[in-house]
Amino acid sequence: MLANPIPWPDDARCCVSITWDIDAESGLAYRHREGMEQLVATRTQLRYGPRIAIPRLVEVLREREMVQTFFVPGWVIERYPAAIDLLLENGHEIGLHGYLHERMCEISAEEEATALERGLAAYVARVGERPRGWRAPGFTFSKHSADLLIDAGFRYDSSLMGDDMPCVFNGRNGRLIEFPIDWTSDDWPHYMHSRDFGFMMPISAPKRAVEVYEAEFEAAWRYGGHWVTVWHPFLSGRPARLTAILDLVDRIRERGGAWLAPLGAVYDHVEAMIAAGRWTPTEDGLPFHDRPDID
Amino acid sequence: MLANPIPWPDDARCCVSITWDIDAESGLAYRHREGMEQLVATRTQLRYGPRIAIPRLVEVLREREMVQTFFVPGWVIERYPAAIDLLLENGHEIGLHGYLHERMCEISAEEEATALERGLAAYVARVGERPRGWRAPGFTFSKHSADLLIDAGFRYDSSLMGDDMPCVFNGRNGRLIEFPIDWTSDDWPHYMHSRDFGFMMPISAPKRAVEVYEAEFEAAWRYGGHWVTVWHPFLSGRPARLTAILDLVDRIRERGGAWLAPLGAVYDHVEAMIAAGRWTPTEDGLPFHDRPDID
Amino acid sequence: MLANPIPWPDDARCCVSITWDIDAESGLAYRHREGMEQLVATRTQLRYGPRIAIPRLVEVLREREMVQTFFVPGWVIERYPAAIDLLLENGHEIGLHGYLHERMCEISAEEEATALERGLAAYVARVGERPRGWRAPGFTFSKHSADLLIDAGFRYDSSLMGDDMPCVFNGRNGRLIEFPIDWTSDDWPHYMHSRDFGFMMPISAPKRAVEVYEAEFEAAWRYGGHWVTVWHPFLSGRPARLTAILDLVDRIRERGGAWLAPLGAVYDHVEAMIAAGRWTPTEDGLPFHDRPDID
Amino acid sequence: MLANPIPWPDDARCCVSITWDIDAESGLAYRHREGMEQLVATRTQLRYGPRIAIPRLVEVLREREMVQTFFVPGWVIERYPAAIDLLLENGHEIGLHGYLHERMCEISAEEEATALERGLAAYVARVGERPRGWRAPGFTFSKHSADLLIDAGFRYDSSLMGDDMPCVFNGRNGRLIEFPIDWTSDDWPHYMHSRDFGFMMPISAPKRAVEVYEAEFEAAWRYGGHWVTVWHPFLSGRPARLTAILDLVDRIRERGGAWLAPLGAVYDHVEAMIAAGRWTPTEDGLPFHDRPDID
To answer: How far is CA D138 from the centre of its chain?
Structure first.
């Protein structure tokens, strides 16, 4: 079913990486630069992430002796340092997620480079080292992103949707390991409702969202894939939803056969497999300069 | 799971506050000031609230000896006095909900103050005393709201989404107790369908909406939280839906361990706990003047 | 639970009126006057109603010896005379539904009067008598509709959402019996998907839509109400959906206690109950000239 | 239930045609001609179709000894020749789907003719013969399409929604056999989520989408119809979803009584039935020049 399967450690059948995007109000600030001070309810909805959900996640993950990956915009690192420190103290991995949740596909290469620089500065100032992982805000990976990221020393990206397995994007000066995601395992389509964001959608019960997630996990387990979630603390960190997904995580762990690992650890494994000649990654050929020339 | 839990009365595990927003046509009138006379079907859809659903709610709650909290815009108080009187005669709590369901985040501080004054005047004229509780129309709590509400003598707000437990907002001249809500326990995403409001969404079966609510209640029950609903009489007061949520309420009461109380009573309890030194509320730090200064 | 219950015939507990709107392409023609010739797929989607679903409905209802109510715009009567004749030959009731599915709330009183006249002319030319029942296209009942309809000799309307039971609207020169509907029992929110109409929504499985309908029926059965559906032959007349709702109708009939009747028969019953002094209808007070005067 | 049933081969009760649209980035390129290079994530989401899902589909269909129908825009044929060759080598049928997924209803007859020509040129260059089948991109069959397709030698279309059975459209110089589809059996309403396409919708679990499909199949099986799916490799070719629909296909095959066939084979059967005088197709009368003349 899955092309080019990678051998997982310890004979695991599949790999599961629970990853979170701690956007806080960064996307709202980017979208409503002038008016965001007035959008207090939506701000509190989003602030719930770093203020309430992150300490809770740290606690429940500590109980399970698990570490996971959290992508954070630079502006959020600056505004919510306590959440960042808590994650670091507990061994979680922090990736970068823009500076102000910029929509990279709508700005110039120069603006994107500036956003990346500001994000990196905020990251390094708090974390003390450079990030290895990147997720483009809103998955807005632009045609300039790969080279900018490679030049900035990133090792992996997790924003694209073109495969079920880790793969590789080669750029001018190096390469990125890509860990593909999909809207399906993002919690946004299941839980988001906000006029300020333009999402007027029904909200699923936790067990209905878990139906969707569990089908994705089952396929990874059956066929040897890498299941990567994109969850938001302000959505999935609410008690009812967190209970439901922890139940799923606990079922996965009890069943055995799945390697639960943060993306950084998966990156190390992938590089080791490549170095050992045990696996050759597929390349997707980014950037693809084949704009239709039909006019 | 929940930070800073408050002790509930009589050793209850958790607290449940069923609250309702009686918007009637106020939001439609605010949105379609000129054309609302023509939108007769949508008006009847909304008028169902105070005309049909409120007497029904009063009856089923009387049978259960329960009192609940109803937030009402001043304009609705003036147009539907019989519904207000019926609620008052049966001991229900009435909070204020703007004058014409204004979107406070889109108007100036002066306009917001005027709306608040008009709402208060309508409230006092009918109820005979000032309101203690406020819910911002459409959750459009602005950066001016906290101080305006404190200066007007409000004691609590229930419009924001930043916590699972009661918390506190300090303003210039005092403080507000905040009872957080969330879109999840609002019936709008589950039941609303209206072109005139711009909500073209599927409509859930009552048992599917109850799946969502029950998950929220279960989490409150398990972890000691405060579950606050935001229901609309014109949506959830329809017979099929009311039957389903009354079944849920009856299950909650039969199970025991949950304190079902209107927000005013919860407010009194919270203040008593604070006064007795038995609980220290978390503060969210509104208004937060940290607009991104990145241009 | 229900205010002002009406006694149903033969000691029935409740009343069920399955009603259909045969819009065909009228709404598309009204919305895309210039471009509709190009929208062939959407036209065929809509033409499925009178061409395919109506003969099928006539057949399955004949097997069950049931007659139902079909609301049809005048333009559809002119374009699909065979469907109308088939319904008439089988004893079904036909109500009027505008001429070109006009959005009455967006046009002047004169334009509405013209649309009504054209609709009546088309109706009388085919049916041979004047209609008794009306449903406003898209539920766009305007502030002028009640008087226009009364003056045109209509006896009842079924477009508004303000009650669970038949009620009355008094106009200048007479009154209309109103049979309230609601979006909930309309099949549009459950089954419609169309870019040309601006409805980008998920599509429910028939059994999920029936969950919604059955809850509405159960409430009518339990509390003595009048359940009125608003179904569209092009949506609910598809085989899988029709099978599911016929199963529901058959369950309702086997259970007993429900009077299944077209709206015209319910109208006769309501008038007889009023004449006999056995029931006094509630009045909703249309037109309601209480536009907020707050500027 | 179904009018004008056609006798299926080998006494089959019904016919099932699984068809796929391999859009890749063609629709995105048509919609965002200037900006598509920047929309890398959405491009990878769409590229998943020909790159990942097509080899997978070929493999699972080979295991089942099934051939199916794939509609492909000319631009996709040019950009993804390996996917096309793989399908051809495995005996699958390829139909045409525009050149750049043009919205035919929004362009002139001349522009549509040009798009068709370019599509045909790309098709013939790769496949070596002219296509027999057509599906209009996004179902945007225009009033010019029937004659353009007939003149170009197409034998059948599968873009319209006006029937449950094969039917016929007569044009100036010949006729097209039509295999009707419906949004219901399209995977887009169940699985699509994309800001770049303007679809902000919840995403169904595979078993919930299969509930919808299975109801459609059951109706075809019960009443003798022709069930035609419209699936997209980038959506339904993901492992969890493909597993769920393969389970459905396997249940259908094990049960017996359904003829699973690509549209080309159904076309041959339909023509043979007509030639043998064993079946007379219904005609829908396209193009229908009855634009409302009411101004």
So the answer is: 10
Distances (CA, A) of C37 to A42, C73, D116, D286: 44, 19, 20, 10
ipTM score? 0.96
Q: Which of D187, D188, D185, D157 is nearest to D171 (CA)?
A: D157
Please name the residues in contact with B90: beta carbons below 8 A apart, sequence gap of 6 or more: B58, B61, B62, B67
Q: Which of A140, A161, A189 sits opposite D44 (nearest CB)?
A: A161
Q: Tokens 């009126």 map to which residue?
A: C17
Distance from CA of A137 to the nearest CA of B (A): 17
- Residue D89, judged by CB atoms within 10 A of its CB (0-12, 13-18, 19+), counts as exposed
Q: How far is CA C63 from CA B67, C67, C230, C231, in A?
A: 51, 11, 22, 20
B:196-255 residues touching chain A, CB 8 A cutoff = 198-202, 204, 208, 211-212, 215-216, 218-220, 222-223, 225
What's the half-sphere exposure (Cβ side, CA atoms, 13 Å) at A227?
28
Is residue A55 within 8 angstroms of chain D, CB to CB? no
Q: Is the per-residue pLDDT at D23 higher than 50?
A: yes
Q: Is the pLDDT of residue D219 over 80?
A: yes
Is D82 buried (19+), middle (13-18) or exposed (0-12) by CB count in 10 A?
exposed
Q: Considering only CB atoms, which chain C residues are within 8 Å of D199? A: 200
Residue the block writes with tokens 């990878």: D44
Residue whose token pair is 């054309």: B35
For chain A, list the domains and their CATH numbers. Answer: 9-275 (3.20.20.370)
The neighbour count for residue B248, using CB atoms within 10 Å, is 20
A108 in contact with D, Cβ within 8 Å? no
d(CA A89, CA A94): 11
Q: Which two tokens stand for residue B245?
A: 């949520």
B86 in contact with chain A, both atoms CB, cutoff 8 A:
no
**Residue B290 and residue A74: Cα distance in Å, rounded?**
15
Q: Is D51 on the interface with A (CB under 8 A)?
A: yes
Q: Which residues in chain C touch residue B24, judged by CB atoms under 8 angstroms apart? A: none
Contact check, Cβ <8 Å, C163/B48: yes
Structure tokens belonging to residue B160 = 């924001």
pLDDT of residue B186: 98
Contact state of A143 with D60 under an 8 Å Cβ cutoff: no
Distance (Å, whole) CA A241 – CA A221? 23
Q: Enumerate residue ranges in chain B where pLDDT < 50.
A: 295
Contact between residue D53 and residue D238 where contact means Cβ atoms under 8 Å apart: yes
Helix axes D239-255 and A206-223, enclosed angle (nearest 10): 80
Cβ burial A46-81 (10 Å sphere, 16+ → b, else e): bbbbbbbbbbbbbebbeeeebbbbbbbbbbbbbbbe
Q: Is the dihedral of CA C259, C264, C268, C273 positive or negative?
A: positive
**How far is residue B145's CA from residue A246's CA, in Å, rounded to a whole number?**
37
Return the closest-CA partner of residue B22 out of B59, B65, B62, B51.
B51
Which A residues in the span 270-289 are in contact with B, Cβ-Cβ below 8 Å? none
CA distance C236 to chain B (A): 15
Q: pLDDT (tens digit, 9 = 90+) per residue, C119-144? A: 999 999 999 999 999 999 999 999 99
| For range A246-253, the mean pLDDT | 98
- Take residue C151 and report the two structure tokens written for it: 């003056």
pTM for the complete prediction?
0.96
The answer to whether D264 touches D257, Cβ cutoff 8 Å, is no
Q: Would you tell me how many other CB atoms lie within 10 Å of the CB of residue D287?
A: 19
User: SS3 for B73?
Assistant: coil
Angle at CA of residue D247, ends D246 and D249, nearest 5°: 60
